Structures are given as C-alpha cells and as structure tokens.
Amino acid sequence: MPLLRGRGLIVAPTLVHAHDLTVEYGGTTILDRVSLSVTRGEIVTIVGPNGSGKSTLIRAILGGVTPGRGWVEKPRGLKIGYVPQRLVLDPTLPMTVERFLSLPRRVSKARAQDALERAGVPGIGKRQMSVLSGGQFQRALLARALLETPDLLILDEATAGLDQPGSAAFYRRIEEVRAETGCGVLMISHDLHVVMSASDRVVCLNGHVCCEGTPDVVAAAPDYRRLFGEGTKGALALYRHTHDHSHGHDHGHAHHEPADRDAAE
Amino acid sequence: MILDDFMTRAALAGIGTALAAAPLGCFVVWRRMAYFGDATAHAAILGVALSLALSLPVFAGALVVALVMATAVSLISGRGYAMDTLLGVMAHSALAIGLVGVSFLSNVRIDIMAYLFGDILSVSRVDLAVIWGGALLVLALIGWRWSALLTATLNPDLARAAGVDPKREQLVLTLALALVVAVAIKVVGVLLITALLIIPAATIRPFATTPERMGILAALVGMASAFGGLRASYSFDAPTGPTIVCVAALLFLLSTVVSGLRRSA
Hints:
The complex is a heterodimer of chains A (265) and B (265).
Chain A: E1 14-25, E2 28-39, E3 43-47, H1 54-62, E4 69-73, E5 80-83, H2 97-101, H3 109-118, H4 134-146, E6 152-156, H5 164-181, E7 184-188, H6 192-198, E8 201-206, E9 208-213, H7 215-220, H8 222-228, H9 235-240, H10 258-264
Parallel strand pairs in A: 3-7, 3-8, 5-6, 6-7
Antiparallel strand pairs in A: 1-2, 1-4, 8-9
Helix pairs in contact in A: 3-4
Chain B: H1 6-30, H2 34-54, H3 58-76, H4 83-104, H5 112-117, H6 125-154, H7 156-161, H8 166-188, H9 193-204, H10 211-236, H11 240-264
Helix pairs in contact in B: 1-6, 1-8, 1-9, 1-10, 2-3, 2-4, 2-8, 2-9, 3-8, 6-8, 9-10, 9-11, 10-11
C-alpha cells in the first residue's frame, strides 16, 4: 500500500495535508493560513465565492503555486487524478479522445474504451477533443483522471457546463468510484445541492477557512450563512453574492475586491 | 564517393535540418512560441560573432548564445512582463550587437550574408556530421520526452497532477530549440530558421488527427521543402536558403486551399 511509504510525518490514511498555506500575489493575500486535509475514502468539498482562493488552493496542492508560508504534505508516489475546471486545447493541436486518455502514460485500447464506457460516453474514442460537447468533454476528462485508479481525485468545478441531470450523474459516478476504490476526493463545487448531499466534509473558504465540518454543521454556521444566504435553498445566492461582508473575528487582513483575486485564480 | 558532390551534401544537410526542425516546430506552434524561436535564432548571430572573434567553431558559439537566450526567455516568460515587447528588444538587440561585432573583426573576411540567409552549398563533411549529430540529438530528446511534453503543453496543472514537471519540459524544449538553431544556421541562416520550424507544422495541421501524425507528416513536409528548394535554387540560380522557405510557403498555400476545398465540399 503506497500510503504507508510516507516519511512518518503522515498518518496512514491521510492523502494530502496542507499546513497553514499563505499565498500572495503582488501584495494581495489570496490564501491566508489555510489548512486542509483529505483522508482515504473521504469526499471533501471546498465552497466559497468567486475569488476566494479555491483554485489557488488546488494549484498549491498540485504544486503549481509555491506558498509564501506553510507547506503541503503528500505521501511519496501518491497517484492524483485531476479534472480541471476547463481545458483549452490550442486549435493547432490535433487530439483524439483516445490519444488524450493515454497522456502521459499509454493505456491499451480496451482500457480506454472501458474507461469511456464507465464515464457514460462510449464510442467517442476516435473523435477529436475539439468537437465534443461540454458534457462529453468533462466526462472524457473524468475518464482520463480515473484511468490510473488514483489515490486522490481532485475536481475543480468539474461540472461547469453540465446541465442538472448531467451533473447529478457526474457526482453519482464520483461516489461510485469512491466506493469501488476507496480513493479520497477533493473538489470545488458551486452546486450547493450536490455539496450538501454528496460531501463528507465541507470547507468554506474566503481567503481563509471561514468554517468547516460536515454539511449540516457548515450549513448552520453563521459564516456560511453570511456568504451564501439562509439555508441551501438559495443556490443562486452564491452567484449574487457581493463580497462586501466583514467578519466579526479578527483575521488581520483586509478583504479585497473579488475582481483582483479572480485575475489571480 | 557520394559525399564528394556538394549538391548531395547540401541535400543531406537540408533534409537533416528539416527532420529535426519540423517535429520541434509542432511544439512551437502548439505552445505559441514562434516569437521564442525568432529571439533564439537572432541571438545566434551574436554567437557567430563571438566564435569568429575567439576562433572557435561557429556551431559551438551559436549553440551557447542561443541556449543562453532561450533560457533567459524561458525564465522571463510567465512573470507578467509584456512578452512580445521584451522579446522584440532582446532579439533585435542581440542581432544588432552581433552584426556590429562581426564588422569589427577586421582580421577575418567573412560574408555575413552566409550566416543571415545560410550557405547550404558550402556544407563540408564536418558540417554535415555536426548537422546530423545535432538533428538526431534533437529527435532523440523530443522522442524521449514526447508524452510528457504533450501533457505539459495541454495544461501545466494536468501535467503536475500526473507527476510531470512542466518547467523541466520547458527546459527540454529550450535545449532542443537552441540545438536546431545552431544546426540550421548553415542551412537557412538565422533570419529564416523560424520558417523551417513553423511552416511545415502549419502546412500539415489540417490533415493530422493526432499529435504523432502531425509530427511525422511535418517532418516529411519539411524534408520535401528542403529537397525541392535545393533543386529549384539550382534550376533558377536563386539563393538556396530563401528558396527552401519559398517552397515551404508554396506547400502551405496548397494545403490551405486543399483543406478549404475539402471543408466546403
């Protein structure tokens, strides 16, 4: 079991642990002492308004952003399946779905077909990535992320562009995978219904961790309600949210215009 | 023997250069690095001046300066500078300094045109060995890193999640580019090297379904351009380097027309 090969710092079931991450871009604090961990078999969802540092946190965990303070612990040889929010293919790059599934490690045709079937998009292997619909594209991304039976699945708003039934099916698939393989799942989601029904733990992020816990606990937390409105009925509240609240507690940092942070995300 | 004929040597030199330049050129096109190729190539003339001043092999001087330039550009890119402006400054400064430098070398009588536009007909056996050695090295490098390079080209975070370091792959491309520039100086000269990189890749794009096919077909187009250009320059008594690029441009035109007709049919 690869997890036991960690350097002793990590207790066996923990897949990733971020300690006190602080990330700044040009004087703007994107993440302020954010800690987060995901254990095997757990679905953790990050919620937060636009510009709250969700994507930056994911990138820091993947290693694409070097934190000014804090660090990320991952067991050696941790297999990560990653589904980005969107993937823009340069029009000059020809790429069939089948070829895409074999990046960076080649998989057999049979495995590629099987993966597409299980993702709900059988028979698209020969098509160009550029002609897929939004839903097919996201499913192809998921199929690729699942090919190597990852220990940790990271989804950055993976259902953006899917309709309601499509995204429900997508998340059912994620839960199946978790049940089958026991992998951990870390995802960003804007769909509060999904968050509340499918997550084991919710982390509410707004530059710092506002609150975290089981969906019930988070839904009842005053900070969460301030960010997303009363209850989870108002999923729209998320999009209407104007980020002008002030927290009652002392964080020692100013809140910035969301637009600034959007640029950094 | 067969290498005694200057036309044979020229043909082999052109084919060897195109063989390495075209697949590398695919990455230059996919990653939108055309400017990068130009800057590296222009800087090479400074390397030529330095090698002549220090009585070193031109290939070595061009390689070192191209490598320094390519690395500098790699490091600067992605740091929020206005790339095209900065590259314009660096590329043309290097070119100008190189030209001025060469003019001060009163003890050597050299034809600067040979380095600006190539002098393929004067390729010696040693040149041929250097060109093919460099070309094979570039091909081996790209072949070895192919999948990792593709993944990093698609999306840096996707690469990181799969255990591929995008910065390392960028370095591989930088090295390959410097090698191609150093190899191609004798064949088409610093001003036209980017053409050998980009035109074959762009020509074949409409007919390629996977990145691999595009790389291989681009190499064929490149070799055909080199060979055709050499024959045409012999028939019409035209300068060889520019004629090679003219043939490549004709093929591009043909490809655009054919793919346009195919689409409208």
